[in-house]
Task: structure prediction
Amino acid sequence: MSTPSAATPGTSSPAVAPATGAAATLGHASVPDGAPDGRFGSLGPVGLVLAGGLSVQFGAALAVSLMPRAGALGVVTLRLAVAAVVMLLVCRPRLRGHSRADWGTVVVFGIAMAGMNGLFYQAVDRIPLGPAVTLEVLGPLALSVFASRRAVNLVWAALALSGVFLLGGGGFDDLDPAGAAFALAAGVMWAAYILFSARTGRRFPQADGLALAMAVGALLFLPLGIAESGSKLIDPVTLALGAGVALLSSVLPYTLELLALRRLPAPTFAVLMSLEPAIAAAAGFLILDQALSATQSAAIALVIAASMGAVRTQVGRRRAKALPEPS
Result:
């Protein structure tokens, strides 16, 4: 899936970005935006972001190939459980000293994470990866448009809706309606994920909140995964593939995004992450042999353009507010 990216903690405006999600929670609040890095130059962080996006979407493609063995819910369970174990071991979050509001935020963040992953994997079990990510990204896009409240964002919304109309062939005749509905619902959870990722990042140091939220999501999904897949979850091959999905879709991209955000302005990061539908389409084609029609490719391009436009509008608004008023 996408484990989409979240808004930067400490800011109030969400970014249209995916997956993956944790980069901001991984301590970006203490890192200055756009800090230059002489060793990597300008291409270094961009390469890290693109590598993270590739990791997420190729991890999602691997998850699709694993579904016949473990089922959609079983794959989500393996991904969340393995990622949670890795993050807990690495971060070793402190359990004491947090308020009830802190824990409430983490729990809701974990619920949003679990819901986003579960709904998305239900979608890719029914429709190709590229269209699924394109529909899912509408959630963060809508969040960005509504948060901005600028007239120009109506243009980006109309552009995105045009892409959705093309993607569905005027009525989702070319896509499974249930799969499309799951992808749209995953987008709603993605928007909630962004909001609560930012809040968690402000309440917990480093990646502690992310690790705890992953544990919450894994515990929530464990009964569902056991009910659907049972003993299949402990099959050595299934476990190994599930660990691969967790590393590709969660642990590795989160780490790459954290490194990138130390050297790259968050708005630029968000624009790059808007390319995820295209990366997902490429992963679906290369790994799953999911070819897209010309119409579907045009639809994905429209949604990507709308996402980039919405992000750039947010950036321009923030810069305008930061300019000093003439005396």
Confidence is low (pLDDT under 50) at residues 2-43. The chain is about 70% helix and 0% strand.
